[in-house]
Specification:
heterodimer; A: mainly beta; five-stranded antiparallel sheet; B: alpha+beta; four-stranded mixed sheet; 47% helix
Chain lengths: 88, 142
C-alpha cells in the first residue's frame, strides 16, 4: 500500500517521542501528510504546522508505534509497468 | 499528442514509428540483439502499444488534475503531462499565478488513483497536487 499523499494518524513509539519532542509538539499522537517514502522512512508534512510552510520532517519507521488511515483496497492487483525493450 | 488543452508526451524509444517496417538501423539492432527481424518487429509492436497506453493514461491523469486545479480558481492551468521512463514518473507542467511550476508524480500514485478511482486514492492525488503547488491549506481530512 502506497502512503504518499495520504493523511495518516501516527502514535509515537517511546524512542520516537524522545527523538522528536522538539520537532513535533503535543501529545502522544499526531496527524501528518506523507509526502514521500524511502529507505530512510517517511517524509511528512504536518497540517498543524505553519500553513505556508512546505518543510517536511523525516519520521523513521522506529519512531512510531502505530498508524491509522483511511484505506479502500483496490479491486485487482496491478502489474508494475515494464521499462525498456525486452525480447520475450 | 494534442489533447483538449494540454499536451501529453511520451518520448518514444523508436525514431521510426511504423511497427511493420524496420529501418536499417533497427535491422542491425535486431542482429546485435540476436533476434530475427520478425522477433524484433513483435517486440517493437509491443513497445509501441505500451507507449500508446501511456499516452492514454497521461490524458486520463491530465483530466483528473484539471478537476483539482478547477478548485483553485483562475490562474491555474495544466499545460503538459510528460512520461519519464527513467524514473517511471509523470511530470506535470502547470501555470500558476506565481508562474509555471513542475510537479512530479510517481507511477504508483498515478496508477493507484486511475485504476481504483476510489475516493481515498483520488484524494491522495489531490493532496500531492495541492502540496506541490503550495496550496496545502486545502489539504484537510474529509
Amino acid at each position: 500500500m502506497g502512503l504518499s499523499g495520504r493523511l495518516v494518524h501516527f502514535w509515537f513509539s517511546p524512542s520516537g517521542r524522545e527523538a522528536l519532542k522538539e520537532a513535533i509538539s503535543g501529545g502522544s499522537d499526531f496527524e501528518a501528510l506523507v509526502v514521500e517514502e524511502n529507505e530512510l522512512g517517511l517524509w511528512i508534512w504536518m497540517p498543524d504546522a505553519e500553513q505556508d510552510s512546505r518543510e517536511v520532517t523525516l519520521l523513521k519507521l522506529e519512531y512510531f508505534a502505530a498508524a491509522s488511515l483511511e484505506y479502500e483496497p483496490p479491486e485487482a492487483p496491478r502489474e508494475r509497468p515494464g521499462v525498456g525493450f525486452q525480447a520475450s | 499528442m494534442a489533447s483538449s488543452d494540454f499536451q501529453v508526451n511520451v518520448p518514444s524509444g523508436f525514431s521510426n514509428p511504423d511497427s511493420q517496417s524496420l529501418s536499417e538501423v533497427e535491422k542491425s539492432m535486431a542482429g546485435a540483439m540476436d533476434l530475427s527481424e520478425e522477433q524484433f518487429r513483435q517486440c517493437k509492436l509491443d513497445h509501441l502499444l505500451k507507449e500508446e497506453r501511456r499516452l492514454e493514461r497521461g490524458k486520463d491523469l491530465g483530466e483528473q488534475v484539471k478537476k483539482i486545479l478547477g478548485e483553485l480558481g483562475a490562474g491555474y492551468r495544466l499545460t503538459s503531462v510528460t512520461w519519464n521512463s527513467n524514473t517511471l514518473s509523470r511530470r506535470l507542467e502547470i501555470e500558476t499565478p506565481q508562474g509555471p511550476q513542475n510537479l512530479v508524480l510517481s507511477w504508483e500514485l498515478v496508477d493507484d488513483a486511475l485504476d481504483s478511482r476510489t475516493r481515498s486514492e483520488l484524494q491522495r492525488l489531490r493532496n500531492m497536487v495541492l502540496f506541490g503547488l503550495g496550496r496545502q491549506e486545502l489539504i484537510v481530512r474529509h
